[in-house]
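Cont'd.
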Amino acid sequence: MTAITILILATYVVIVLAIGFAATKKSSDTAEDYFVASRSLSWFHLGATLFATWMSTFAFIGSPGFYYKNGVSWYLPHGFLVVASPFLLWLIGRRIWARGRAHGYITPADLLADHYSSGLTRFLVAIVCLLALVPYCLVQLIGVGKVLEAATVGAIPYTWGVTAAVAAIAIYTYLGGIRAVVWTDAVQAICFGLLMVVGAAVAIYASGGLLTGIESAVDAQPDSFVFDTSKAGSPLSLLVMWTCGYILLPHMWQRAYMASSAKSLSRSIVMGAVLAFFVIAIPSLIIGCLGMGFLPGLQDSDAFVPTMYVNYLPMAVPFVVLATFAAGMSTVDSQLLSASSVVTQDLVRPLFGDKLTPSGARKVGRITSTCLLVFVMVIALSPWGQGNIIVLASKGTGIALLLLVPLLGALFTKEGDGSAVTASLILGSLTLLMLETRVLSLSIPYGFHPAIAAVAVQAIVFLAISASASPKAQAAS
Amino acid sequence: MPSPASTSDLQRDCRKRRKMNLRAVQTSMHYGRRPRVSCELSLVAEATDATTKSVFLPAPIHFSEPQSYVAGAEATAWKIRIPREIGAILRQTQSMSGCVRIIQTGLGILVCVVSFCSRDTQTPAKGNAMPTNFPTRSRWLLVAYVVICFLTLLPVLGIAFNSASSVGGIPMTVLWLTACFAMHALLCCVGYVTVFRHWANDVDSEDTDQRSLIGGVKK
């Protein structure tokens, strides 16, 4: 079985590399093409890349496992993020798209720094973007490593799995840029979408039917099917963080720049919502919840999906590994390119200005993505870097949430003030850092996440400084 | 709670009030009007029976059900009926608190919806290159989104549908959330047909016009 798994994986990697190589022939030597595909994606490619990038190993492995562990309290944020977040693309994303198209933006900091006319804002937003990408990138590698280990019953150790994934991702991202990523995303989305549906069928089969399975799951863990309203803050925080993460995580934000036309953007919204509901939300729920009944007592919830396949459909195990690989790769490659674009455009270009040629920018981008990949791999292989997929990924979305107030300020208010957004970013980041590291031992009521408290601080600071600055600005003008 | 020493005074007061109320009912019936009987619950409950549970409410409650009082205009019927009414009201209040909260919040949302949708179109924010303002259809779509979001949150807020009891074999919480998520997906489809598509066509045709004006040079 291990040999078959390795063979299938090798074939898949070769196909993906071939696609990446083909994509290089279509690419032109500009930063805009390398990072945002010259804003030329059709609705199908945009929808597929949005779906594949957002629905990573967290959706395929982490999410059913989290259902298995926490029950319905994860259904609210998970279902909401997959179904309601595409709508955010309509409310917020189309504005980002329109501005990006009009002004040629590539990174999130381009939009915010331009709106607030502040170089410091650019720097701070770039740092927040890089920090937000690291945990989310990390969980993809962890997911691939864990699944390979569990599916092959230890024949392929965690370390090898992570290293193989890193090697494959590095090569085709280095070759083709975002165009290669988008093309492979379409293949990868089909791959793990199919496996999600098959997974739900396996869970139903294993539990002796849908209703019987639900009944035994409710009997086994009745508390998992009711919300604990005294801790309502926890699912609500996850809901806000993950739903907003759809737009605020830098690699997702940049996808809003990539649409070739308004029609592409609109169609991709519908495609994302419908596909996510039927392929992700419902199958995840079925797999995780039924698992409480037919496979109780697993300690590592992330190992639930591969264990289910090993026990009930062993012949599909190689495809599970393949799908996890696909899910992880389709997200990590986008994040690497996003990180490299942030470093190139927001940190290096302001220093060198016009001296940075397009080929030089691409070179900086490639070096950055390779360095980041190695850095994340080191964390993934170290014992202190490992953890539950959903918990780690939530840290990334929590950091990305710091961009919410500046973004809403830029898109929906008439006043733009660089000092307000700078102060709000600094104070919000400090609040989040102190609460996460427990330097500030403040118990937030109802179990709300520190990121929500940080955003509240940001909003207050932003509004207060904007309000005090507005009369002065008016008087000056 | 009134002191035991004042019980006889209370009983006397209650008897007096009862007579007045009965007279009011009879007078109203005589003139064909809808009678209105009022009494202070604390006094009545105390006066009916020493073992009856005393119920204290901050203000007098007014009953407007003439038949129940007139049909048995006896004082004994009064004594039994009123504590039962109070219990029923209290039980209803407890079980219906969720519904009351839903109605209150729903009314609040309705007011916001009406005021939001009846406003004139907004001007675009500073630097927003979008050629759209905020047309009525978009507003309704946004409002529908907010309403569905609120409905989705009912179980987690403990307002309603937070139960593992089975409805058609599926736990109520799961069923409710699934229905809400299906509505979200449906809303996206409806939004595409009613709003997104028209907006996209407008923007794309403007873009094509601009390109043709500058000689087909791609930006």
